[in-house]
């Protein structure tokens, strides 16, 4: 039996190649994802954990002590650590916001880090040059230097707290570690510790690190430091513990990204499984006489079954090996893509662990074997005598199967429809889960109904080609419907991939259209001037400069901060909920700010009145007419609001509004805001409306001139905001298209594979058609049309399902106050359909070429 299996594999190697490619692609995505996750962890451990390198003990503020967290670690604490026996060197790490002025004269966020007093305690690696030694010198992160084209010896401008420019000479570049700026891809520079206080406001040291003297272990030194500092509200860790903390934080992000990729890998494997199932179904149908002959000469049903599974195992092993190699290439490509997004050159790492190899082979073999089980069982159940007939009878079995299939389809459709209907009336979170489950069930129903619906669909699609191309196209339509199960399995693989792509694309486009409409409705300002540095306000003088500009009709400044909301009499007991709050002028409301009022009135705001966003009102349990105690935090405190600080003001809720995007959770009059926060330094943003007849280009030039003296001023427009939003969404869609595109590619291999096997199966039929007058060109055209019909059927059905599922998801995400606009991007959908047609034509090229080149006489004799 073994010799028979080996001989069969040799004879059918060419027929199994395309199927092996399908499995290999699925395995490549799985193993590539696993290798990428291991590479990220290895990179963090070896390259990016520089802030923990050479550190034996680290002291951090205890986050449970808010006062210590605000004040940071003091110089006295650093002196205490330095006096601890066994400490060879200790340093305090600190950083401040130091806006960097780039070539255009505008500022952007940057972080200034103090140079280490001991080279061993650098949280970075020097790439070129040296550390700063003088107050007017700076070392720059290599990403910043590359992005702004800053050479060694070049000049760099930083702004101090009063936005006064200071020039520095660049003396070196470095690669930073896993600091907070790395996570947000922020610019970073290294300066002398004495320079930092002159540029920005710090809160003491963020961390104290120490190196142990020879012979002192980390645990022993950590215990001594902990004892010396006492109950100072700090956390003391060993260097090993600090490293593990850094690794865990990045490993969690890497794990989330890997999980995201594995979801698409699962889709690709499902599609590959359908291709394998179809391949073995066709191959075993073609080998009916061969299997029957094996049964006649003594092979038992179990032996036949095992021989088929042995072929599947061999194919799975070979495909998994190819997939493993492809996964390494895919991981390298993903690492380069991630590095390109971050603006840095990335060292490609390909750590191939034993677990990754095992998972890759296990997945490939398991998917292949499971896909071959049903065809193998079906082949063993055919009696030898029946199989030796020219046309085995199977009509009754097909009818029984069809009735079972109809019942199963109806069951899935009813379950899916019920779940989707419940999702439309349930809350947003529950509704999403129910609707998602419903769409999966409905997709399963369509897949199960495939053999019942592909015939009518292909006959309908074949009308136009039949009218245009005549007999070859009509033959192609007949071929596409002659074996419904085979056609359904081929088109279903493509349909699943296109359904997912279409659904995600339509949902994303609907979200874009909804947000764009909200921006146009709620923020009709022509331009918005904001601070490029989050913790620095725009100066009040800028408002006067803008108002003196002749092209501007209305200039409305806005304060912004964070506040706690409490019912009067409860504020001193427990902290209230924290919300963003804006102080606006009366002239802004209705003219430059148009939130949708759902309760109360918002034509103006008095000094003792407040308007709340609907989400904030629900969270705080407040309604129109209620009184609320409001405490505004200092701008420098950002979102860390201490309810015990600052004066409390009692305001009356006069309106509840619905809004999205940059609209704050609470609105008060500008005068009321300054009364609650007298230390406010300036404005958070300034809304601008042009005079009638002033073009957008001229208006922008006018705003640019007025803000030229304020480097931190950043000018945005509604169109620019929408463009940035659309750009971000399109980046995500491009990633999704690329990942799910692999499943579509696998499905197209399935079409090519089906056509190739069909050409072999229909060798005598093709020869007979040639003998009756069909030319080689017409034979090629017939196969091309058949492939296009399969591709259009799968892609078209997928687009319809994807759009329908997207509508269900949009409805389940919509609420009474926030309705998502269903919007199909017909241009993108059209591109998908055109791509499917072109890909289907390419998939048919080789099978059509093979069929056309076959000799008529040889085909009649061999068949």
From TrEMBL:
InterPro entries: ABC3_permease_C, MacB_PCD, Macrolide_Exporter_MacB
Entry keywords, A to Z: Cell membrane, Membrane, Transmembrane, Transmembrane helix
Residues passing through the membrane, by range: 260-285, 308-334, 354-374, 406-426, 432-454, 488-508, 734-760, 781-809, 829-846
Limits of the MacB-like periplasmic core domain: 17-227, 487-705
Start and end residues of each ABC3 transporter permease C-terminal domain: 263-384, 738-855
A GO cellular component entry from the record: plasma membrane
Topology of this chain in the membrane: Multi-pass membrane protein
Cell compartment(s), UniProt: Cell membrane
Single GO molecular function: transmembrane transporter activity
Family: Belongs to the ABC-4 integral membrane protein family.
Name of the protein: ABC transporter substrate-binding protein
Organism encoding this protein: Gandjariella thermophila
């Amino acid at each position: 039996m073994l010799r028979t299996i080996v001989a069969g594999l040799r004879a059918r190697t060419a027929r199994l190649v395309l199927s092996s490619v399908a499995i290999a692609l699925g395995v490549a995505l799985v193993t590539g994802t696993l290798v990428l996750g291991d590479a990220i962890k290895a990179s963090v451990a070896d390259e990016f954990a520089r802030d923990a390198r050479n550190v034996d003990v680290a002291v951090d503020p205890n986050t449970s002590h808010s006062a210590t967290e605000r004040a940071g670690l003091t110089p006295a604490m650093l002196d205490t650590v330095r006096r601890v026996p066994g400490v060879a060197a200790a340093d305090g790490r600190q950083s401040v916001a130091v806006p960097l002025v780039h070539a255009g004269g505008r500022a952007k966020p940057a972080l200034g880090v103090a140079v280490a007093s001991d080279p061993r305690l650098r949280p970075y690696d020097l790439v070129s040059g040296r550390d700063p030694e003088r107050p007017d010198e700076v070392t720059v992160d290599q990403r910043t230097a590359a992005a702004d084209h800053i050479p060694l010896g070049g000049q760099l401008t930083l702004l101090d707290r009063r936005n006064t420019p200071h020039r520095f000479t660049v003396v070196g570049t470095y690669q930073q570690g896993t600091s907070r700026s790395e996570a947000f891809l922020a610019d970073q520079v290294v300066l002398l510790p004495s320079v930092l206080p002159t540029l920005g406001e710090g809160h003491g040291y963020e961390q104290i690190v120490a190196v142990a003297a020879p012979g002192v272990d980390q645990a022993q030194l950590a215990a001594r430091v902990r004892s010396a500092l006492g109950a100072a509200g700090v956390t003391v860790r060993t260097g090993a513990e600090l490293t593990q903390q850094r690794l865990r934080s990045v490993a969690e992000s890497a794990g989330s990204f890997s999980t995201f990729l594995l979801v698409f890998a699962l889709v690709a494997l499902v599609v590959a499984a359908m291709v394998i199932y179809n391949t073995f179904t066709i191959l075993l149908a073609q080998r009916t006489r061969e299997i029957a002959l094996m049964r006649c000469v003594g092979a038992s049903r179990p032996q036949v079954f095992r021989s088929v599974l042995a072929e599947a195992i061999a194919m799975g092993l070979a495909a998994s090996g190819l997939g493993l190699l492809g996964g390494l290439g895919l991981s390298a490509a993903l690492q380069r893509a991630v590095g390109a997004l971050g603006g840095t050159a990335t060292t490609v790492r390909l750590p191939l662990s034993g677990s990754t190899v095992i998972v890759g082979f296990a997945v490939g073999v398991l998917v292949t074997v499971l896909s071959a089980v049903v065809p193998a069982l079906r082949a063993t159940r055919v009696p030898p005598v029946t199989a030796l007939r020219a046309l085995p009878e199977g009509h009754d079995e097909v009818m029984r199967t069809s009735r079972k299939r109809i019942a199963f389809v109806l069951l899935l459709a009813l379950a899916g429809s019920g779940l989707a209907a419940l999702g439309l009336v349930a809350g947003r979170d529950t509704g999403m889960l129910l609707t998602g489950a419903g769409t999966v069930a409905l997709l399963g129903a369509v897949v199960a109904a495939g053999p019942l619906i592909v015939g009518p669909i292909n006959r309908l699609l074949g009308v136009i080609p039949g009218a245009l191309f005549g007999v070859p196209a009509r033959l192609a339509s007949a071929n596409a419907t002659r074996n419904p199960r085979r056609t359904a399995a081929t088109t279903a693989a493509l349909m699943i991939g296109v359904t997912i792509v279409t659904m995600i694309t339509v949902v994303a486009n609907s979200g874009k259209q909804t947000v764009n409409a909200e921006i146009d409705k709620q923020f009709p300002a022509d331009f918005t001037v904001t601070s490029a540095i989050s913790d620095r306000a725009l100066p009040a003088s800028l408002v006067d400069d803008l108002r003196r500009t002749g092209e501007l009709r209305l200039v409305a400044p806005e304060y912004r901060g964070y506040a706690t909301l409490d019912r009067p009499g409860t504020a001193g007991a427990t902290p209230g909920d924290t919300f963003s709050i804006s102080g606006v002028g009366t002239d802004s409301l209705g003219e430059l700010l148009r939130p949708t009022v759902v309760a109360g009135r918002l034509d103006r705001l008095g000094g003792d009145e407040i308007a709340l966003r609907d989400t904030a009102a629900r969270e705080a349990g407040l309604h129109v007419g209620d009184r609320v105690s409001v405490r505004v935090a200092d701008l420098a405190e950002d979102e860390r609001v201490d309810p015990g600080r600052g004066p409390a003001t009692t305001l009356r809720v006069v309106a509840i509004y619905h809004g999205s995007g940059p609209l704050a959770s609470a609105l008060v009059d500008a005068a009321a805001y300054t009364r609650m926060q007298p230390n406010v330094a300036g404005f958070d943003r300034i809304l601008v409306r042009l005079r009638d007849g002033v073009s957008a280009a001229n208006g922008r030039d006018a705003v640019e001139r007025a803000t030229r003296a304020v480097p931190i001023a950043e000018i945005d427009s509604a169109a620019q905001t929408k463009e940035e939003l659309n750009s971000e969404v399109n980046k995500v869609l491009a990633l999704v298209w690329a990942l799910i595109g692999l499943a579509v590619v696998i499905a197209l291999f399935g079409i090519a594979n089906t056509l190739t096997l069909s050409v072999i199966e229909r060798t005598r039929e093709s020869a007979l058609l040639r003998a009756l007058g069909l030319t080689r060109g017409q034979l090629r055209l017939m196969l091309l049309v058949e492939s296009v019909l399969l591709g259009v059927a799968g892609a078209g059905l997928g687009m319809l399902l994807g759009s329908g599922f997207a509508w269900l998801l949009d409805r389940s995400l919509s609420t009474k106050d926030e309705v998502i606009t269903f919007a199909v991007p017909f241009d993108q959908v059209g591109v998908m359909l055109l791509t499917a047609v072109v890909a289907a034509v390419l998939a048919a090229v080789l099978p059509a070429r093979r069929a056309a080149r076959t000799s008529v006489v040889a085909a009649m004799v061999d068949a």
